[in-house]
What we know:
Blueprint: H1 14-33, E1 38-45, E2 50-57, E3 62-64, E4 67-76, E5 85-93, E6 105-110, E7 124-131
Antiparallel strand pairs: 1-2, 1-7, 3-4, 4-5, 5-6
Amino acid sequence: MQLKKNIKLGKINKKIFFYFTILILLSNIKSFATDLNSVEVKILDKVSSITTQLTLNIYEETKFENLIIKILKCKNSEFDDNPEVTAYMQVQDITLKNNNKVFVFNGWTFSSSPSISLFDHPVYDIWLIKCY
């Protein structure tokens, strides 16, 4: 007696596909809920020694003196007791007329060690404080 296989190759059971899709969407809800909208930074004017604290919205360009600052991503680590804050930041200096260099800084910055990816500007220093 020969047994029939009840699995047809190339066909997907619609019920299993539906439940699998729902499971994937539910597992991603946490990442949607923890998306952060704002970043807090401190900017030091080295000439006047004045420190300014700004709240920046993610994906929004903010003009501060001669700088245009844009935060593309911000993340708080979930594993440490003292969470690390990281952000992807782009900074333009509008006084520079050199078209070869678009950004003064374009990269990740870390709140606990800003010297890892150094924002090097003759007038300003920028420190990441927190994301929320």
